[in-house]
Write a structure and sequence with these properties.
The complex is a heterodimer of chains A (266) and B (261). With 266 residues, chain A is of the alpha/beta class. Chain A has helices at residues 43-50, 72-78, 94-104, 109-122, 138-150, 168-185, 196-202, 220-226, 234-242, 252-265, and strands spanning 3-14, 17-28, 32-36, 58-63, 66-67, 79-82, 156-160, 188-193, 205-210, 213-218. The termini of chain A are far apart. Classes of the chains: A alpha/beta (266), B mainly alpha (261).
């Protein structure tokens, strides 16, 4: 299968702290790739480099052959991104939120309405299209956010902890839609999580990141095998490869915004 | 298409999209407009009335109420705009900003979009001030020419202070610090201008500040249009404000994406 994403020796340093430490990996087209790791492992920093929001200190990352630093404009048209926090505007309706993205992605005037209707239908949000998004439930918000990134049919979708703060039913619903999307358009899905079950259920491959490095990469069964314990769960292999070393690097602002997002989503 | 015309057309269309969405938000919840009306009403109704009794300030043959109305209008427009930049901190905290930065939208379009929508809010302030001036029987020159001029100056002034506030937001990065600094900047700018007293009665050092303060140019332009009818300085006022606003929009487009770091 052709490669969609190649990362080579990617490094990001903040002052004297190395958040991402010379990581290399690649993702094939059509994969559902999970990025696991404790808080502060460097997952979010890596994703922010891949989606052109942060410049790496050294190393390179390419999406469909386009370097994320040298060709951000091309990369941006190929990707979709769902941040961990709430990225829809509560003061606008669902329809307006979708229209905003459709226009920012230069979807031609004639196709806009059709694509928006298609997405509203796909997400079962047709009946709520004209309601202000601040009246939405957490699951509906997440679905709408995913819908927003689908308007321009991205080749690869990046999701930063897509189901953090959602109840189990909403979580399942969000994944049902993501998988349907993956099957329908062949969209590559790249998501970070610290939820093992989630990774185990859906993904083709997993990378476990710890203290800025990739501890291990492979299918979930490969990971379990390598722990040497035949009955290992993914949780066990996670502890095995990360050495359970949870680094306390999450700062006040991140905790605050994560809590705020959780409160609003829940 | 050529890269340069393509970039310009992208900036213009995307600025329009961003501004339209901001205006839609305002229309979904117009209560903010009402709360914003309180401050200019207090300045005109209480400060203005009290000071005009004192007759302490030379006002070139016009009543003090006439003299300060353009100043209060400027103040309320710039106060709306200076706290507008805080919205990018709010949007950063929510993740909205990150999502927009990942789209192929020119950075400048987000600045211009916010500038235009702050201008629209500013125009609603102008309507409030004009209505209140009518109630207080303050005589203003409201002609097609002066209203067109007011619209231009309002859009430029609101744009300048929106750009300034986005730069501050990018530097301070948190809402709490922004609120503190916002206060520290707006009041001195207001007092170091010709909004509520003429520049020539200020101490010399303050005159220097007032002469480079964009707020003074905005007040001067509005005062010419609405009160004095002396348009000799008006082209200068508009040119200075236009240049300042354009300049700050470029600086802001360069700096504000740093708010996410």
């Amino acid at each position: 299968m052709p490669t969609i994403l190649t990362v080579t020796n990617l490094t990001k340093r903040f002052d004297d702290f190395t958040a991402v430490d010379a990581i290399s990996f690649s993702v094939e087209r059509g994969e559902i790739f999970a990025f696991l790791g404790p808080n502060g492992a460097g997952k979010t920093t890596t994703i922010r480099i891949l989606i052109t929001l942060l410049a790496p200190t050294s190393g390179e990352a390419k999406i469909e052959g386009y370097d994320v630093v040298r060709h951000p404009a091309e990369v941006r048209r190929l990707i979709g991104y769902v941040p961990q926090m709430i990225s829809v505007d509560g003061m606008l309706t669902a329809y307006e939120n979708l229209m905003l993205m459709a226009r920012l992605y230069d979807i031609p005037f004639r196709e806009r309405k059709e694509r928006i209707q298609e997405i509203l239908k796909f997400l079962d949000l047709e009946d709520h299209a004209r309601a202000l998004v601040r009246t939405y439930s957490g699951g509906m918000i997440r679905k709408l956010e995913i819908g927003q990134t689908m308007l321009h049919h991205p080749r690869i979708l990046f999701l930063d902890e897509p189901t953090t703060g959602l109840d189990p039913v909403a979580k399942q619903n969000v994944w049902d839609h993501l998988l349907e999307l993956h099957d329908k358009f062949g969209t590559t899905i790249f998501f970070s999580t610290h939820n093992m079950d989630e990774a185990e259920d859906v993904c083709t491959r997993v990378a476990i990141m710890n203290t800025g490095k990739i501890a291990i990469i492979g299918t979930t069964s490969e990971l379990k095998e390598k722990t040497g314990n035949s009955e290992a769960t993914l949780e066990d292999s996670f502890v095995f490869f990360t050495g359970n070393s949870l680094r306390e690097t999450t700062n006040f602002r991140e905790v605050r915004s994560a809590r705020r997002a959780e409160r609003r989503l829940g | 298409m050529n890269p340069v015309p393509k970039y310009i057309s992208q900036v213009l269309t995307k600025s329009y999209v961003m501004a339209e969405m901001e205006v839609r938000k305002l229309l979904h919840d117009p209560t903010e407009l009402a709360t914003r009306a309180v401050q200019p009403i207090l300045w005109l109704g209480i400060f203005g009335e009290a000071m005009s009794k004192a007759r302490a300030i030379p006002t070139q043959g016009f009543t003090y109420m006439q003299f300060i109305t353009p100043g209060i209008l400027t103040q309320s427009i710039t106060f709306v705009a200076i706290f507008y930049g805080i919205s990018i901190i709010w949007e950063r905290d929510m993740g909205l900003l990150q999502k927009i930065l990942v789209t192929p939208t020119p950075r400048l379009a987000l600045v211009w979009g916010k500038m235009i929508s702050a201008g629209v809010r500013g125009l609603s302030q102008a309507v409030i001030v004009f209505l209140f001036a009518l109630i207080l029987q303050i005589h203003l020159q409201l002609t097609l020419f002066s209203i067109t001029g007011v619209i231009i100056l309002t859009m430029l002034g609101a744009g300048f202070f929106t750009g300034l506030s986005m730069i501050i937001a990018a530097l301070v990065k948190t809402r709490e610090r922004f609120m503190g600094i916002g206060q520290v900047i707006t009041l001195p700018l207001f007092f170091a201008s010709n909004a509520i007293y003429p520049i020539n009665i200020m101490p010399e050092w303050l005159q220097v500040v007032a002469n480079v303060n964009p707020l003074s140019y905005m007040v001067d332009g509005l005062r010419a249009l609405l009160v004095t009818g002396d348009f000799s300085q008006l082209p200068l006022d508009i040119v200075v404000l236009f240049a300042a606003t354009l300049g700050i929009s470029f600086a802001s487009a360069y700096l504000y994406p740093k708010v996410i770091e």
